[in-house]
Amino acid sequence: MKVALGVTGGIAAYKAVEVLRGLQKAEVQVQVLLTRSARRFLAPLTFEALSGQPVITDMFRSGQNWSIEHIHLAQEIGLLAVVPATANILGKFAHGIADDFLSTLYLSCAAPVLLAPAMNVEMWHHPAVRANVDLLRKRGHVFVDPEPGMLACGMEGEGRLAQVELILSAMLGLLRGGESLAGLKVLVTAGPTIEDIDPVRFLSNRSSGKMGYALARAARMRGAEVALVSGPTALEVPAGVTAIQVRSAAEMHLEVWKLFPHMDLVIKAAAVADFRPAGRAAEKIKKSGQAATLALVPTEDILAGLGAAKKHQVLIGFSAETGDLLAHAREKMIRKNVDLMVANDVSAGVFGSDTSTVHILSSAGERETLENRPKLEIAHRILDLALHVRALRAGPVSP
Q: Would you say residue 399 lies in a domain?
């Protein structure tokens, strides 16, 4: 595997060194390309010493035919990644401007493209930049969006380069996954559900939806046709994913069953409420000073229903527990006829985190633990194991 790592001119350029080291640990060959502006922040020697290869810094170099070299490199790589990606390079890529080696390589490249932007918050939200980002997303390029935080300019907001671990996870997922889910239909549920008590109050849970959205993004990266049925979240729908927004467990139940018969892989990552109020009050329930009792009834058990009805589908469930984690998860897997169960301990307040520790249990009795890993990395591993289940079910291929 070979990656072209483009580094453009921003203060976050130094983090590209960490990306290079992470790729090397994963035994990925890296060709580094520095733009003219990037060389104002980092010297080529830094990357040459670490990669053991000359760094490409210019379209034209004495003794080298770089106008042809970009074609050769485009044919060799399995991924073009730009870390950090400035507003300038996003504009060049979006509009086909090829005035240096990196932008010319982009136009010659048929490999997947990953972009990790970093810039001032006002630049990131400028209509011109947003339009360029939207155009590049529509081309199928993968973005690891910037994070909120304190920026080098002293302002605070979105624009800081995403965590290196998250960028590496996305890159390795693209390299490892390729088109492994091409031709398959994948259904993912995500987020919480909301069960109304009256026009003001409701029952819900702390699910952020991040794991489900990471699964939808990873499946789309790997070529699947992805449907995402999501409860209310603040997350952006991954590019290329068809999203259906729902509110209650009953709404999620309805939408999932519409899609289920046509799916190859179903991943139930949503935190669906177990109970709903027995009846929704038409008016706000007034405080009387007396103790009040709320009658609850069970919601539809979507996962159990799918487990009873599945035929060709690979079915994956999630088990969020606060005690006896593995015992509860395995019992749930067997009772609901699930192929893989992803168990995580939520007693430590992990909701909303970008990383997680999970135990992936299989119906064959196997267990794999991923400790404190980015959710996108966990998502790719779940998809790896789902493909393994699918292959085992298909049986050996006749000669």
A: no
- Mean pLDDT, the chain cut into blocks of 10 residues (399 residues total): 92 93 89 94 91 84 54 85 96 95 91 91 93 89 82 70 86 76 94 94 91 91 92 88 96 97 97 92 87 91 96 95 90 96 81 84 91 84 92 63
Structure tokens at 261: 């018969």
**82 & 193 share domain:** no
Which of 174, 175, 192 minimizes the C-alpha distance to 230?
A: 192
Whether this model's pTM surpasses 0.90: no
Looking at the structure, do residues 73 and 210 belong to the same domain, yes or no? no
Assess whether 133 and 250 both reside in one domain.
no
Same domain, 152 and 9: yes
Among the options 49, 153, 296, 348, which is catalytic? 153
Do both 85 and 194 map to the same domain? no
Q: What are phi and psi of 364, to 5 degrees?
A: -85, 0
* CB contact at 8 A, 71 and 106: no
Please identify which residue in the block is written with the tokens 């794999």.
368
- What whole-number distance in Å separates Cα of residue 315 and Cα of residue 329? 15
pLDDT in tens, 96-123: 999 999 999 999 888 889 999 999 888 9
Residue 183: count other Cβ atoms within 10 Å of its Cβ.
9
Q: What is the CATH number of the domain that holds 142?
A: 3.40.50.1950
Full residue range of the structural domain in which residue 218 is found: 185-282+291-394
CATH of the domain at 356: 3.40.50.10300
**Environment class of 327 (CB within 10 Å of its CB; exposed 0-12, middle 13-18, buried 19+):** exposed
Pairwise CA distance, residues 136 & 83, whole Å: 16
| Cβ neighbours, 10 Å, residue 114 | 25
Q: Which two tokens stand for residue 394?
A: 């298909």
Q: How many C-beta neighbours within 10 Å does residue 123 have?
A: 17
Boundary-marking domain end, from 112, 147, 177: 177
For residue 153, indicate whether it is catalytic. Answer: yes
| H-state helical runs in 83-163 | 87-95, 101-108, 121-124, 127-138
